[in-house]
Write a structure and sequence with these properties.
Oligomer: single chain
Shape: globular
CATH architecture: 7 Propeller
CATH topology: Methylamine Dehydrogenase, Chain H
Radius of gyration: 21 Å
Number of domains: 1
Distance between the termini: 34 Å
Number of strands: 37
CATH class: Mainly Beta
Strand order of the largest sheet: 1-37-2-30-29-28
Helix content: under 10%
Low-confidence stretches: 1-20
CATH superfamily: YVTN repeat-like/Quinoprotein amine dehydrogenase
Strand content: over 45%
Number of helices: 0
Length: 429
């Protein structure tokens, strides 16, 4: 269905730059409530996807109740201008679950996966969206009661990999083709609330990660599944995570390394030599991005972004804070390198006060350095500052382990119901 776009443009105020006067954001984007409803709720951008032209795709969850879309997908140009919004409705939906995950596939379609709550249980769903912002199909899984989506990734053939967790005793990894038909479905043993994530390498091998952060024994492991669905060697992370840690995010980089974010820094290993792990600790790391020089950018999940150099020690280079006005709050959920390699894309949410009136946040800043200054967008003043962290480097030899990974299945139902537009506010300094 056609989507009507409502757009408001705000101007930058109060630059007040410090030492790095020539460095400033490329844009600040704030996306708020569904147009015409008059309601106040937060939309949260969960993660960032891009196409080869630099167009940006984000998924978000409204912090509302029944009657609103379970999720939105939005697209912006590389300059931050709104292209389209799309609401995802599911007939049995009551309230959203966790924020959705989004990917841009080689076939030119966008896929959005998340969870919804019916009033009695939580179920996962995935939507296929055209590049022009039209819904193709939405599939939800009534056979996975109590499950939340943990991650979504895509391979070079546009197959989708979804991980879900029932926060009890089971996690699942589901591979679907681009038409959302099941390729295989595997069940993994776990403990309550263990994060379970997956990503795909350049050979279309699926790498899965699980970590138990809350209670002993702190079972943590990773391994791979080849493109035919055969599970390979599984590796034991327990010596690196002896006291347990949260896994937040994992990404495959074109240098054949996989980077994983944890509650105590990040680690990486080569898919060509997965038994040697390099760990960089001493700070919270919720998201990472790696540029063409192998410099690493990290988010602490709150208001800070760090750059570490491309050496083997990944020394601290700069740190930047993004601070809302007094009484407000901010969260950085994901960061990515822009298609041209010159900028960081940052997404999450920002609201100015305790009444939770605000919206989803998308920022584009240069990778060349930090800056100080203030900008006002949609009535919220964001002030940029500096910060530092201390990075500790460690290496671990990883041994193999045995895990019972079995094939399984689950039922799915299709729906194509969609609606919704959003208000956008843009500052381009």
């Amino acid at each position: 269905m056609p989507i009507h776009k409502t757009r408001a443009v705000a101007s930058a105020q109060g630059f007040g730059f410090g030492a790095n006067t020539g460095v400033k954001p490329a844009f600040l984007e704030n996306t708020t409530d569904q147009s015409g409803t008059g309601i106040n709720y937060i939309n949260i951008f969960g993660n960032i996807a891009q196409d080869s032209s630099g167009n940006i795709y984000v998924g978000m969850t409204p912090n509302g109740g029944g009657g609103y879309p379970v999720a939105f997908a939005s697209s912006f140009t590389s300059a931050g201008a709104s292209r389209w919004d799309l609401g995802i409705n599911i007939s049995t939906y009551s309230t959203p679950g966790n924020y959705p995950y989004i990917v841009y596939a080689p076939n030119g379609y966008i896929y959005l996966a998340g969870s919804y709550f019916t009033g009695s249980s939580t179920y996962p769903y995935i939507s296929e969206i055209s590049s022009s912002g039209s819904i193709v199909n939405t599939v939800y899984y009534t056979g996975l009661s109590g499950c939340y989506v943990n991650s979504l990734s895509v391979d070079s053939s546009s197959n989708l990999i979804i991980t879900v967790n029932d926060f009890s005793s089971t996690t699942y990894l589901w591979k679907l083709n681009s038409s959302l038909s099941s390729v295989y479905f595997k069940q993994f043993p776990t403990k309550s609330q263990s994060p379970f994530l997956a990503t795909v390498d350049s050979s279309n091998n699926v790498w899965f990660f699980l970590s138990e952060p809350f209670s002993s024994p702190y079972t943590s492991y990773y391994g791979s599944i080849n493109s035919s669905g055969t599970v390979g060697t599984v590796y034991n992370l327990n010596n690196a995570f002896s006291s347990g840690t949260n896994l937040f995010n994992i990404k495959y980089n074109s240098n054949s390394y996989i980077y994983a974010c944890t509650g105590n820094g990040f680690f990486y290993f080569s898919t060509l030599g997965p038994t040697l792990l390099s760990f960089f600790s001493g700070f919270t790391c919720v998201a990472t991005a790696v540029d063409s020089t192998n410099a690493v950018y990290c988010s602490n999940g709150s208001n800070a972004i760090y750059k570490l150099d491309s050496t083997g020690s990944h020394n601290f280079v700069w740190g930047m804070t993004i601070n809302p006005q007094s009484g407000g709050n901010i969260s950085v959920n994901d960061i990515a390198i822009s298609t041209d390699g010159n900028y960081l894309l940052i997404c999450g949410y920002c609201y100015p006060n305790s009444s939770n009136v605000g919206g989803a946040m998308l920022l584009k800043i240069p990778v060349s350095g930090v800056f100080s200054g203030s900008y006002t967008i949609n009535g919220t003043t964001l002030t940029f500052g500096t910060t530092t962290i201390s990075v500790t480097s460690s290496s671990y030899s990883i041994s193999t382990t045995s895990q019972s990974i079995t094939s399984s299945s689950a039922s799915q139902t299709s729906t194509t119901s969609t609606s919704g537009t959003l208000n956008h506010y843009l500052v381009t300094p």
